[in-house]
Amino acid sequence: MKRTLLALIVSAWSLLATADSELQVENAWVREAPPSAHMMAAYMTLKNPGSSDTVLTQVDSPAFDHVMLHKSEVVDGVARMTHQDDIRIPAQGSVELKPGSFHLMMPTPEKRLVEGDRVDFILTFSNGETIRLQADVRKKP
Amino acid sequence: MRNSIRRQGPLSLWRIIPLLLAAVLLAACGRPEPPQLSQGTLLPSAKPVTDFQLTDHHGQPFSLENLKDNWTFTFFGYTHCPDVCPTSMTMLGQVQRKLEQQEGLDKLPQVVFVSVDPERDTTELLSQFVPYFHPDFIGASGDEQNTLKLTRQLGILYGKAEGSAADNYLVDHSAAIILLDPDGAFRAIFGVPHDPELIANDFLAIKNYYEATQ
After folding, report:
1. Nearest CA in chain A to B130
2. Which end of chain A is more exposed for a tag (fewer CB within 10 A), N or C?
3. B64 with B132, same domain?
4. CB–CB of A50/A90 below 8 Å?
5. Which residues does chain B have within 8 Å of residue A41's beta carbon, measured at their own beta carbons?
6. B157 in contact with A, Cβ within 8 Å
7. B54 has which bridge partners?
């Protein structure tokens, strides 16, 4: 009985979370990498028109062994990249994953990805919600 | 005869003075002013670089000698870098393609990617990484001592990021692009953010200034 009640509460919460979320992902792309590159990067814009912050906690992709959340920044002229545990998208705001800033970092797959290929990603948020999307591989600065 | 000589004396002087003034004015006006740059910073005086020994991505020696008689853009990065380095190298490819379209430019600058991760950046890795951004680009790497020999002269900083594992690490590195003149001297620095149009224009202005002052 307790288990059933718990399951009901959990599914009700999930429904509520899904209904409340209006998160949008735009312009997702993966940068085509040189043949010998060991790492690749992906970018996108995360928009949160909702009334509460949303936190991106994990990204998975069948194309890559694993996907890391990273941020590049230049401090006093020195470029450094730091691992991010999560990326917060503020309520009624957006976060742009872009070159020189937040990005996804992935070890290069065995089969080289080139411009025109499409890559699947699954984004997981702290509320348990997931978003599936496809990103184009592009040659861009 | 004597009279005519006497007359010519003072007249010649009056003729010479304006000529001398004109010559002085011309010399003053002809001395070029350093160009106003949009993106780069020109060093007040070029800083000569002492020799260093690297290896290019063809396995050939790359030293100070290779900087002579060429303008050289250098960027310092590593091939495991997925974000900042490809962005800067793609941008340098755009600079080069803009300069290729520039009429009257007798010789294009060379672009050299110097590895700040010589442990992992083998000649083979560089040979696939660097020409991807432009077929004429040069990749170079060397031992720690020679890499530092060059970076220290150009004010470039680099080092493994804190918390890096021995076999899986990130490298912090200066993001600037350095311009060396055909004497192999450090002439200008371009900090971030980089704009290919502005860098190409600044390069042409620096080159014109250099040639006018030789």
Report:
1. A34
2. N
3. yes
4. no
5. 82-83, 86
6. yes
7. B62
Subunit contact B94:A70, Cβ cutoff 8 A: no
Q: What is the distance in angstroms between the Cα of A108 and the nearest Cα belonging to chain B?
A: 10
What is the maximal distance between C-alpha atoms in chain A? 61
Q: Which amino acid is at B34?
A: P
Q: Does B47 share its domain with B27?
A: no
State CA B109 to chain mean position distance. Answer: 8
Is B63 in the same domain as B110?
yes
The gap from C-alpha B52 to its chain's centroid, in whole angstroms, comes to: 17
- Contact map slice: B 112-151 vs A, CB within 8 A: 124-130, 132-133
Question: Is B190 in a helix, a strand, or coil?
Answer: strand
Say if the Cβ atoms of A34 and B133 lie within 8 Å: yes
Print the domain residue range for B27.
Answer: 1-31
Domain for residue A79, yes or no? Answer: yes
Concatenated DSSP letters of B106-126? -SPPEEEEEES-TTT--HHHH
Count: domains in chain B: 2
Residue A131 half-sphere exposure, CB side, CA atoms within 13 Å? Answer: 24
> How many pairs of residues across A and B have Cβ atoms under 8 Å apart?
86
ipTM comes to: 0.80
State both tokens at B101: 């379209």
- Say if the Cβ atoms of B129 and A81 lie within 8 Å: no
Q: Report yes or no: B187 and B42 within 8 Å, Cβ to Cβ.
A: yes
Q: Six-digit token pair at B74?
A: 């250098």
Query: Given A35, A38, A100, which is nearest B132 (Cβ)?
Result: A35
The pLDDT tens digits along chain A (141 residues) read 444 444 444 444 433 334 445 799 999 999 999 998 899 999 999 999 999 999 999 999 999 999 999 999 999 999 999 999 999 999 999 999 999 999 999 998 888 999 999 999 999 999 889 999 999 999 976
